[in-house]
Amino acid sequence: MKRILKIIILIIIGIVLSLGVGTYIFYKNIHVPASNEKNTSTVSRNESQNKEQAIERKNILFVGSDENNLSDTIFVINYDAVNKKINILSIPRDTYYPRPGFNAPEEKKINAAFSEGKIEGLEKAVEDLLGIKIDNYVILNYEGFKKIIDTIGGVEIDVPFNMKYDDNSANPPLHIDLKKGRQVLDGEKAIQFVRYRHGYVDGDLGRIKAQHQFLEAFLKKMLQPSILPKVPSLAITVSQYLKTDLTASEITQYAYQFIKDKPSTINAMALPGEGRYEGNTSYFFVDNIKVQEIVKELFSDEVSTSNTSTTSFAENKNIKVEVLNGAGIPGLATKYAEVLKNEGFDVVKIGNVIGMTFTSSHVYARTDEERAEKVAKTLFITNVENDISPDANVDVTVILGKDKE
């Protein structure tokens, strides 16, 4: 849904800009930091063209939230204007993300970082998880999503099977009742479609695939000429229900570029991994090695300088690391030791933790915290602790938990 929101804004503002209508409404109502806004009304045609040419590629975090401020849908998207591509990475809300001081089972899911730490907490969680920098955010609640779909006259979707689910304990209660077959979904039915996940064999990943399907159908609908007369109403709806730290001028700039270029490629992927139970709680455990490959493919131009893709191979050779298997899974330490070696780190020891099993992975700084952070970023481990010792034979100790299975 995050992805949906962004494109809604891009298309809306782009069309509004090109037609010369509705821009005033957007500028007047959009929830953006006023102190950062520039007066675009005086920007000349040449200045606009220069901005267009200098459009910056950013990683934008999209959150679809319910009435209780819970993040039900999480996307990271960037628009590659140079190659005319849209890159989307969906993050399951049950993704295992332990945080120091939060020990309850539900608190170890990434969506808890939003409900407890708000957008700043979720931004940090996603940055830690992916090793990228989040530049901006967009938040849309369910009511806004429904009104947007109703405003454009619904979206045509082929519902793959009968979807029936009721949760009276939810606030508000969730009731889903969709019949199999191709049909036009209004706002209420569209939110049911993108939220449904209990009938998919692969759980939340199945829902993510359905959301990608909905996105494609939504984009097709948004590019139809029949949408043009609805632009003013659509702009008002978006401005009322959307929160973002993007300025109106930034949104307009990206929108214009989007409409002008008409991107032909959408790379929509889900975070790699698998869902399984830890005790009585269902988590989605990330495949950290595959994540690195996807991050390089989708966000290579945006990977933060702390990520190993931009860390010099020569510097890593001076960092001595020991990798210990704390999960009791055969070959686990060797597997991740190879990842470190491929990035230039000097792995001086591979072994096992005796007498204790770790659920989550940890990185310990034995000589220098900065070196430990580099190793943690390479392996996408969020738990970094200091264990400085003048007698240490290594710079960093890695203990792999079951989350690295």
Automatic annotation (TrEMBL):
<keyword id="KW-1133">Transmembrane helix</keyword>
<keyword id="KW-0812">Transmembrane</keyword>
<dbReference type="InterPro" id="IPR004474">
    <property type="entry name" value="LytR_CpsA_psr"/>
</dbReference>
<feature type="domain" description="LytR/CpsA/Psr regulator C-terminal">
    <location>
        <begin position="318"/>
        <end position="403"/>
    </location>
</feature>
<protein>
    <submittedName>
        <fullName>Cell envelope-related transcriptional attenuator</fullName>
    </submittedName>
</protein>
<dbReference type="InterPro" id="IPR027381">
    <property type="entry name" value="LytR/CpsA/Psr_C"/>
</dbReference>
<dbReference type="Pfam" id="PF13399">
    <property type="entry name" value="LytR_C"/>
</dbReference>
<keyword id="KW-0472">Membrane</keyword>
<dbReference type="Pfam" id="PF03816">
    <property type="entry name" value="LytR_cpsA_psr"/>
</dbReference>
<feature type="transmembrane region" description="Helical">
    <location>
        <begin position="7"/>
        <end position="27"/>
    </location>
</feature>
<comment type="similarity">
    <text>Belongs to the LytR/CpsA/Psr (LCP) family.</text>
</comment>
<feature type="domain" description="Cell envelope-related transcriptional attenuator">
    <location>
        <begin position="71"/>
        <end position="223"/>
    </location>
</feature>
<dbReference type="InterPro" id="IPR050922">
    <property type="entry name" value="LytR/CpsA/Psr_CW_biosynth"/>
</dbReference>
